[in-house]
Design the sequence.
């Protein structure tokens, strides 16, 4: 069996890699090809396009890449047709994958399609559900999504959140405050200076800055060596960093869910450009942005976005967490419980292999 896969970001690539691994364990004869990153390549996918070439953040950046992505979509269709691909798995990345799904079903309607981790339509607008319905199968990873899609007469498959299989609770032994400014230049450039103000203002505390790469430290003007109560580490795993920390300050994204599943509280921070802020606030009408908060429908992880993302408010929320660690821990356990399932990733893999 030949399967084509399409994702566009690191988080989707990570989820896809877990799925590929389980499919290949169950049936080693399956061949995977597609648009992926390093995680899925390592898991066994033959790379047709590396996702690093597709990196987009925000609305304005997406507009610049539109014609390039359209050209790529038709190249992928050619590949699917020429190579006798039987199934296609789309992972997240709705800006591209929904259009690709539409083109795919128009040109190759016989190819069985799976949308794994569909775009957050409760955020981005329910109007896009018409395109999503073109998929033969929709597989979601959050419990509230099942009811959301049922409202629109779509049966979504849910076995639990895949990260439950991968992330175990960690016993925290350190007293650092963990800083996670993200991995994109725009994120690090906007968030790390505010984090460093927190470090400077609280010299009695110890801070651990985890950067994805050493060169990321050059994306800010500040010299990190000047902060005596700051340790900078590019090699440490997230799990080891959490073990050495008591709380975290982290860029909004998948990492917030990882923090929750490994049992550490924290503050969510994020800044985007002015155009993106306008669209987010007035068109999307976002409530919570972090997945743990959406899971319980309450603010377990304080969210400081845009103008609220400043050093004073970051420290204020961090102090609140440090004063009531038991309260945070109890909520975190509720998040894990709500997202649990049995052999979650294997269940999704078997569903794909069984097909229609």
Sequence:
């Amino acid at each position: 069996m030949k399967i084509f896969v399409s994702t566009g970001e690191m988080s989707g690539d990570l989820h896809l890699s877990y799925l590929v691994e389980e499919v290949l364990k169950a049936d080693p004869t399956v061949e995977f090809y597609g648009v992926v990153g390093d995680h899925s390549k390592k898991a066994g996918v033959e790379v047709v396009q590396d996702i690093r070439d597709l990196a987009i953040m925000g609305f304005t950046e997406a507009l610049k890449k539109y014609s390039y992505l359209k050209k790529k979509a038709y190249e992928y269709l050619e590949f699917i047709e020429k190579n006798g691909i039987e199934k296609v798995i789309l992972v997240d990345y709705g800006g591209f994958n929904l259009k690709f799904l539409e083109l795919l079903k128009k040109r190759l309607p016989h190819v069985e399609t799976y949308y794994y981790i569909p775009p957050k339509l409760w955020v981005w607008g329910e109007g896009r559900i018409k395109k999503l319905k073109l998929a033969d199968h929709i597989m979601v990873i959050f419990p509230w999504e099942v009811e959301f899609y049922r409202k629109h007469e779509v049966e979504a498959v849910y076995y639990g959140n895949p990260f439950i299989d991968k992330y175990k609770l960690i016993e925290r032994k350190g007293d650092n405050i963990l800083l996670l400014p993200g991995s994109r230049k725009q994120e690090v450039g906007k968030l790390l200076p505010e984090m460093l103000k927190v470090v400077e203002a609280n010299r009695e505390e110890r801070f651990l800055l985890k950067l994805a790469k050493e060169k990321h430290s050059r994306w800010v003007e500040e010299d990190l060596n000047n902060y005596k109560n700051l340790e900078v580490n590019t090699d440490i795993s997230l799990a080891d960093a959490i073990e050495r920390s008591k709380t975290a300050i982290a860029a909004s994204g998948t990492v917030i869910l990882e923090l929750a599943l490994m049992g550490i509280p924290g503050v969510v921070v994020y800044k985007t450009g002015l155009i993106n802020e306008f669209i987010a606030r007035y068109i999307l009408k976002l409530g919570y942005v972090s997945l743990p908060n959406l899971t319980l429908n309450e603010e377990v992880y304080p969210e400081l976005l845009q103008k609220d993302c400043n050093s004073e408010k970051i420290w204020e929320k961090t102090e609140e967490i440090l004063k009531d660690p038991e309260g945070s821990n109890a909520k975190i356990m509720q998040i894990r419980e709500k997202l649990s399932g049995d052999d979650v990733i294997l269940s999704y893999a078997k569903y794909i292999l069984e097909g229609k």
User: Anything to note?
Assistant: The mean pLDDT is 90. The longest helix spans residues 10-26. Residues 2-160+342-354 form a domain with the Rossmann fold fold (CATH 3.40.50.2000).
